[in-house]
Amino acid sequence: MDSPPTSVRILHLDDNPSDAQLIRALIEEANHDLSASVESVTTKEAYLAALRSCPFDLILSDYHMSGYDGDEALRDARALCPDTPFIMVTGELGEERAIETLKAGATDYVLKDRIKRLIPSIKRALKDAALEREHRESDRKYRTIVETAREGIIMATSPGGPWTFVNRRMAEMLGYSVEEMLEKSPLDFVDE
């Protein structure tokens, strides 16, 4: 998939109205190649209510806010909208803090003094999310085909090594459950 969704819905959490206006203007300016609508919220309560409806393609959040911070906003986003890309947009985020933010599940972070980097970051996050959705869907289809196959299918790490996958049909053919088969290895079936 080469392009982000045609109409992108962005949730933006920032308790500074002038920063929120700046980011909205930047996104609107980029509307020629990023068709987006932005819902701005300024409080934890409004943010959580918006997350619970989870119709967003992307979440932007400031890091420093009164009574709520970017780490909490990220945790809440991962809990309520785990597949939605999350970009931290902040005035200051040290290198260690930035790394921790990415490890905690943020897609990216953009410093407000380098705000022109925001639109490319949004485009990349949306593209990556679309590719991830496509991958999950492909994986789901593959698993459905393999699980419902009329043939027995089994995979091992190496010849004679432990089995890493057994479909239901193979387990039935050998008279075991899938769980029992995964506890065995090919050597368990070799006549001595």
Shape: elongated
Question: What is the CATH architecture annotation of the largest domain?
Answer: 3-Layer(aba) Sandwich
What is Rg? 23 Å
Give the overall average pLDDT. 88
- Quote the CATH topology of the largest domain: Rossmann fold
Structural summary, described in words:
By secondary structure, this protein is α/β, with parallel strands linked by helices. The chain folds into 2 domains: 8-142, Rossmann fold (3-Layer(aba) Sandwich); 149-189, no CATH class. It contains 7 helices and 9 strands. The strands form 3 sheets. It has a 5-stranded parallel β-sheet, sandwiched between helices. Strand 1 (8-13), helix 1 and strand 2 (36-41) form a beta-alpha-beta unit. Mean pLDDT is 88; it is low at 1-5.
SSE map:
Layout: E1 8-13, H1 17-29, E2 36-41, H2 44-53, E3 58-61, E4 64-65, E5 68-69, H3 70-80, E6 86-90, H4 95-103, E7 108-111, H5 118-148, E8 154-156, E9 163-166, H6 168-174, H7 178-182
Parallel strand pairs: 1-2, 1-3, 3-6, 6-7
Antiparallel strand pairs: 4-5, 8-9
